[in-house]
Amino acid sequence: MVRAGDANGLVVITQLQPVAAVFSIPQDSLPSVLKRLNQGNKPAVEAWDRENKVRLASGTLITVDNQIDPTTGTVKLKAEFPNTDGSLFSNQFVNVRMVVETRKDLTVVPAAAVQRGAQGMFVYVAKDDDTVTVRPVKVGPSEGPLTAIEAGVEPGERVVVDGVDRLREGAKIETAQRPSSTEVPPPGEKKGRRKKGSE
Question: The pTM is what?
Answer without folding.
Answer: 0.56
